[in-house]
Amino acid sequence: MGEQPIFSTRAHVFQIDPTTKRNWIPASKHAVTVSFFYDANRHVYRIISVGGTKAIINSTISPNMTFTKTSQKFGQWADSRANTVYGLGFSTEQQLHQFAEKFKEVKEAARLAREKSQDKIELTNAALNIAAPQDLSEDLQSPPMCINGPGEEKLFRSQSADITLSSEKERIKKMLSEGSICEISLEAELFTLQDSNAKLVAALHEANNNVEQWKKQLAAYQEETERLRDQLADLEAHGSSHGPSDLLKDELTQSLEELEALLKAKDEQLINTTNDLVASHGFQEMEMRNIELERRVQNAEQTLASSLEDRDRTESEMQRVIDILDVKIFDLNDLRQSLVKLIDK
Fold first, then answer.
1. I want to staple 56 with a disulfide (CB 3.0 to 4.6 A). Which of 27, 311, 313, 340 is the partner?
2. What phi and psi, each to the nearest 5 degrees, are found at residue 5?
3. What is the pLDDT of residue 79?
4. Is the separation of the CB atoms in 10 and 32 below 8 Å?
5. Is 3 exposed, middle or buried (0-12, 13-18, 19+ CB in 10 A)?
6. What does the record list as coiled-coil region(s) (predicted)?
7. Spans of all domains in the chain
8. What is the full DSSP assignment across 86-143?
9. Mean pLDDT by 10 residues, the chain (345 residues)
10. Pick from 4, 78, 9: nearest CA to 43
């Protein structure tokens, strides 16, 4: 029957710092899928979460475990087998409540499963004490290292099956690793596009600011030139050919010529700068390129999101297959041990 998921949610996973036993260490960069699994063969419940290519939570639930809500969106439980404390941060209080209720429900189910398993073991041991020889337990503890006989072929087939299942697990892990490499490549491309877009936007803003500043300077120069021209016209209309007005007129004429020259130079500089911007960058071209880059960034983000969703689904499915393979390997090992005992008889 294998191991089947019975409840899934998404949360940020943390583990307690093994040194201080106080601080939390993030086990994943983003929220990941956290699932309850039930193994029908071994009658155990587990909490499993996979981040990247490794399991960041693999906790077998026992009846003495307790899930504690430490805030409105955070809860934790201690796993003595893993020698750690797991913490989960949820996006909503409702998700935390649902997980806590499911933990409580699964813990009760684990207690009932353990009681049934103990009853079954007691019945099995009683039957073995009646039907089996006294020294059978010694065979279970010390199986022979070398086997010769008609059962050797069956044992070899069991070992071959173990090798095949191990190879399948390695292939699945390789697939998950390739998915992570693809995700990293997409993230790198997205970062490059965002960086290029930011540089282009900054250059465009700087060019616009420079143009506006030069326009303001030209307007100020033009106003000053007009004022000096008006003063010069007044002097020419009311002044005489002798006296201090001639000196003032000469100074105003010189100032006017200097301002006109400066105005002409600034005007040429503005034209040249505008032409350079249009020729080298081009506002319209920069805007179109910016729009194109934004479109590529959006496409990359959508592709990345889709890839992450596909990878999460693939990881969940692959983890389920790996867990099933683990169970099969465990069953094959049990079968091999049984064959060893039968051959030894």
1. 27
2. -75, 140
3. 94
4. yes
5. buried
6. 197-317
7. 1-131, 152-345
8. EEEE-SSHHHHHHHHHHHHHHHHHHHHHHHHHHHHHHHHHHHHHHHS-TTHHHHHHS-
9. 82 93 90 93 91 89 94 95 94 96 94 77 55 43 41 47 60 55 47 58 72 80 80 70 58 78 80 65 68 81 81 81 76 82 83
10. 4
- What number of residues does the chain have? 345
- In the block, residue with structure tokens 């006989």: 149
Task: State the maximum Cα–Cα separation within the chain, in Å, rounded to a whole number.
Answer: 144
Tokens of 227: 């004022």
Residues 6 or more apart whose Cβ sits within 8 Å of residue 313: none
Neighbours of 72 (CB within 10 A): 10
> Which residue carries 């683990």 as its tokens?
326
CA distances 102 to 63, 66, 69, 76, Å, are: 13, 12, 13, 14
Tokens of 334: 């049990």
pLDDT (0 to 100) of residue 294: 81
Give the span between the Cα atoms of 325 and 51, in whole angstroms.
20
pTM recorded for the entire structure: 0.37
| Residues 7 and 102: beta-carbon distance below 8 Å | yes
CATH topology of domain 1-131: PH-domain like (2.30.29)
Assigned fold of 152-345? Helix Hairpins (1.10.287)
3-state secondary structure at position 236: helix
| Exposure string over 195-230, b if 16+ CB within 10 A, otherwise e | eebeebeeebeebeeeeeebeeebeebeeebeebee
Tokens of 320: 């389920």
Q: Which two tokens stand for residue 216?
A: 């303001």
Q: Are 48 and 319 in contact (CB under 8 A)?
A: yes
